[in-house]
Amino acid sequence: MEDKKAELFRCGKELFGRKGFKDTSIADITKMAGFAVGTFYNYYPSKEKLFMEIFIEENEALKRKLMMAVNPDEEPLQLIKKTIMLNIQGMKSNPILSQWYNRDVFDKIERLFREENGMGPMDFFYRETIDLIRVWQAEGKIRKDIDRDLIMAMFMAIINIDTHKDEIGLQYFPQLQEYLTEFILRGLIEQPPAKRKE
What we know:
By secondary structure, the protein is an all-alpha fold. Helix content is about 65%, strand content about 0%. It is built from ten helices and no strands. The radius of gyration is 20 Å and the shape is elongated. The relative contact order is 0.10.
């Protein structure tokens, strides 16, 4: 049984990567796998569920690759900027992960990603980044007056603003993302002005 599920996963991954989420049907996947359509439902309740398993696996692999590609001893500004840009490039260059930026399927993917706790498998990435932020704060390299989880939310906002290109204006990308990254990171590095006593 596990062999059949693995084959559906493999065929789904290949077809989603080649044709995209929207243009891949369950019939396409089962045909490639050599199974009847009904066999699919023994393992997955929907095409979306299979896609999300594949998406989460690919996203986790990207995050592990990112961690290997950066030097934690690098200065915060350079390291975070590099990590964010590598993540964006990795998402866009991966045919599965790039579906996140497809407006036709984004709402469905995003909703299922939240329902499936898609961030769960990336806990290692979140924990290691939070630990690094803690060290930087202790060393005075970034502001201590901003909560670490809020800093992580800022980084996620930079990455996910790309999903709002249409509302903001396509003509502003990728410059908008680059400037936002720079402004947020510089704001995190500069210490806040001392409060004046009244």
